[in-house]
From TrEMBL:
Highest taxon listed in the record's lineage: Eukaryota
Similarity comment: family membership: Belongs to the DEAD box helicase family. DDX52/ROK1 subfamily.
Domain Helicase C-terminal: from-to ranges: 345-507
Native source species: Tilletiopsis washingtonensis
Protein name: RNA helicase
GO biological process, one term: maturation of SSU-rRNA
Amino acid sequence: MSDVFRLLAGGGGGARFDKRRFADDVSIFTGAPATDAAAASSSSSKAGSSSGTKLSLPADLDFFGGASAQPATAAGKAGDAKGKGKAKPEADSGTATEPLTRATVGAFLKEHRLKLTGTDAPLPLASWAELSSRWNAPEWLAQAPAKAGFAAPTPVQCAASAVLLDDRDLLAGAPTGSGKTMAYLIPLLHHLRGPKPGPVRALIVAPTRELATQIHDQLRKISGPRGVRACVLTKANEGNLKQGEGKKGIFDVLITTPMRLVNALEAKEVDLSGVRHLVLDEADRLLEEGFLEQTDAVLAACSHPELRKALFSATLPAGVEEMARTFMVDAVRVIVGTKDAANESINQTLTYVGSEEGKLHALRALVHEGKLKPPALLFVQSIARARELFQELVYDGLHVDVIHGERPRAQRDAVVDAFKRGDVWVLICTELLARGIDFKGVRLVINYDFPQSTQAYIHRIGRSGRAGRQGEAITFYTKDDAPHLRSIANIMKNSGAEVPEWMLSLKKSSQNARNKLKRQAPERIDVRVAAGSTLGRKTANKRADMVRASKRRTAAAASSEAPAQPGEQEAPAAPPTKTKKRKLAAGAAAEES
Ligand SMILES: Nc1ncnc2c1ncn2[C@@H]1O[C@H](COP(=O)(O)OP(=O)(O)OP(=O)(O)O)[C@@H](O)[C@H]1O
């Protein structure tokens, strides 16, 4: 039996993977025909063990491309996207594409559903070759995207990169998974040219440490032979950013969460007066309650007179755009597809589960019906519920793990790696993973708890269907969620999903109710209590033993790590008072520490 196949086997009770039913999936793991794979099944590994042995994965199992040295031909993949608003490069790999002219740009914008507004908005670039022909970028930079597997630019890269290469302020909205990160990293590298001792010259702010780390990884991938020096700000490397007293800063690019940066600013460990390029990734989140105060402080500390600002997100509510206009100068606005819409490569469904008690039944039914296609993300509304659901599912043989802002940093990193390797099949998570995280191979997102806003919905389900791949999202709703059903149903309809007419004609929830829901998650009974009726005493005792054992393993693994601060961005609690605001912000940025 192959190691990979051993991974499929789960221990304990509950709804296990039925390997006959999932013969097609099993065959991926064995490389054998589906029927043989099913016949060869046997069980040995422990459910929920994510630390797992390192496996050498067959290509089909390398869901996230992490195991293969050669990245997937991303341009080809993105090129697979059919229809509107998707990451769709304009040409096949390597094909030279004519630069756009004022005469041809209209058709290009229409074809790629691009909206470009602003004074003298620059023409989008039509191929990476224009990096050198139009902006005189060094050869290595013009070749960097193709080397990274991105043969042709995606629509947001065509339009937004051109604006940034022209050194203009930018507000960009494009669907999840459409390549926004490269859209700003490539121009950044162009402007920085190479490493230069002295103060930090570029600053990228993102709401979670996980996203900051991912951006850093992407930057390293393309930063070329004379690579600029970038770091994710941590307590440990703060000192290296200090200027003066005979010290010269050694980092060109700083990538950070707002709270971490504000702490460093307050401790006078970082000087941002040399920052020429500021990127706010997931800008609407950074300009929302919980982060706004910190983002404000960061903007104030970036005092360079020629500071250029770039704001990116898949969702840009009107209020955020309005706020952005107060600090941007002569900005160009780029929108790909319909603003604030879900990615159209994702097949979306809403599932009525009655009450909290119905959720586990519905989840287990998905497993039995072979509809829970791993790798899958399972979103819940709070850290407490993430823990509860993990305790409930850890015995189901699903190779499940959990990630949230109260797990120590090393554990969070290990879980992300295990998920990328394919060791974890189902990852229970909070909003910590909802934004920006690029697990390319995620096949299914389940909203176990109803999302608290349309933005949360768009970002959560956007963890699948990336770079032109197909994805799937299932959202559970109870009768208590019904008042907010209509707004999600509308988002679904606007991205081409079939939605029953009655959902669209439900009464619209009031702005107040929507704001309240956004601020505060609804009360839900404990997942374990909801499941209580299905558990025999014996099973319950066995579960308790296994949870204790799992906790012991976790504690042993984390013994060297200080835990992150409690709270996180998805649970911004009650309307903030002044002091509470500060606490909230600390909570919102818990994952950065
Ligand atoms: N030109 C390209 N061709 C094909 N794939 C690309 C291209 N540029 C980026 N990608 C890939 O597309 C995936 C999604 O990119 P990225 O994470 O930047 O999306 P995003 O638009 O920022 O999404 P989100 O809104 O969720 O943050 C990544 O795996 C990236 O490597």
